[in-house]
Every structure is written in structure tokens, then in C-alpha cells.
Amino acid sequence: MPVISADLLRIGEVSARVDLPVKTIRYYEDRGLIQASRRSSGGFRLFDDTVLTRLRFIRRAQALGLSLQDIQEILAIADHGDRPCQDVRHKFQAKVSAIDERIIQLQQLRGQIVDLMAAADQTETLEAEICPIIEHAATAPNGMA
């Protein structure tokens, strides 16, 4: 078995330390989000331990709703030696705006469904192929659907 430098980690070790599937780590490498330090003589990817911090950053950023494209842009700024905080703020502001819009859409949908449920007793008696509550939603009160 080839000797591997003690400070380099195989992908399985990285996977275990950051609790990410090996397949995900490979995908991140393919996308350019992380980079193996080198390959072993047997072709195994070898990473230095700085990749652990980077993978944890990627997970946190995704948990906050950033896309891999967003994260890649942020990491590119950091890789050039700059702090990407201003870019992060802009991305978060856009995310907040998108969330606000989605909240409005969900509130409207909720209102439509509440109205449908309120009218369900009358609508249920109408003729329909499957379910008149849904099929007659366009003719339900308040001009819904």
C-alpha cells in the first residue's frame, strides 16, 4: 500500500469529517468549488485539511439559501485575496426580496385554498369528472384560480 503524507486526506476521510457524501465532494471538485492537492500514485484524490473549512463554508452558505453559482462567485472573490462580504450582502438582499415575493404568493394561495374549503359544501355537489372542488375552482367565489 502506498504511503500517503500524514497531512493529506483521502476523499473518504474528508467525507467522514464534514459529513458529506463522497459523490458530493467529487461534484464540488468538478464544479471548481474545491480542489484536490494532488493524486496518489494509485489515483486517489488527496486533499489538505483546508478543504474541510471550505466544505463547511459551502454547506453553511447552501443552508442560507445560496446557490452553488452564488457560492462559486463568493469563493472566487476570496480566492483572489479579497473579502467577499459586500457581494454576500447583495446576494442576501436579493434572497430576502425573493423570499418576500414568495411569502406574498403563498399568502395568496392560502387565501384561495381557504375560500375553496369554505365553498366546498356547495361546490362538491356540482358535476365534475374527478373533483368539483378543484375543477370548478375558476368559478369559485372572489374570482379565484
Structure description:
The chain is mainly α. The chain folds into 2 domains: 1-82, Multidrug-efflux Transporter Regulator, Chain: A, Domain 2, CATH 1.10.1660.10; 84-145. 59% of the residues lie in helices and 6% in strands. It contains 7 helices and 3 strands, in the order E-H-H-E-E-H-H-H-H-H. A 3-stranded antiparallel beta sheet has the order 1-3-2. The longest helix is centred in the last third of the chain and has 34 residues, at 85-118. The chain is elongated, with a radius of gyration of 25 Å. The N and C termini lie far apart (66 Å). 10% of the residues are buried.
Which helices and strands appear, and what pairs or packs with what?
Blueprint: E1 8-10, H1 11-18, H2 22-31, E2 38-39, E3 45-48, H3 50-63, H4 68-79, H5 85-118, H6 120-123, H7 132-135
Antiparallel strand pairs: 1-3, 2-3
